[in-house]
Specification:
This protein is mainly α. It folds into two domains: about 60 residues, Arc Repressor Mutant, subunit A, CATH 1.10.10; about 35 residues, no CATH class. The protein contains six helices and two strands. The chain has a two-stranded antiparallel sheet with strand order 1-2. Helix 2 packs across helix 3. The radius of gyration is 19 Å and the shape is elongated.
Length: about 120
């Protein structure tokens, strides 16, 4: 399931709002400055990838995401982990800890996660 950056804007709109008409999707992604035809092309690509479902609802045609956001996030994060860190989580966390300022609540959550994993 490969989703391009452009397609991800359409998916994010659907994950956020649920069912949307083509016009509503265009409005949701308008900050990208895309023409209506571009958005409809993205919708068609996602339909071909079987990541969206379209259905008539009264006099409107609406789209919904078939792929759940959580499933997409898991696949994308696992791909990143595999490509850049040989599938190992500790180097990923270390990388971000070295290059980004961790907030105190992030540190607390990481410590709690480690404690929970050690208790298993």
């Amino acid at each position: 399931m490969q989703i391009t950056t452009a397609e991800s804007y359409v998916m994010e709109a659907l994950w956020r709002r649920g069912r949307l008409t083509p016009d509503e999707i265009v409005r949701e992604v308008q900050a990208q400055g895309w023409a209506e035809a571009t958005v409809k092309t993205l919708i068609n690509r996602l339909l071909k990838k079987e990541l969206l479902r379209g259905a008539k609802n009264g006099d409107r045609y609406e789209y919904t995401a078939i792929l759940a956001r959580a499933d997409y996030a898991l696949a994308e994060s696992q791909g990143l982990l595999d490509r850049l860190f040989e599938g190992r989580l500790a180097p990923l966390v270390a990388h971000f800890a070295e290059h980004r300022q961790l907030k105190p609540d992030d540190v607390a959550r990481l410590k709690a996660l480690i404690d929970a994993l050690e208790d298993e």
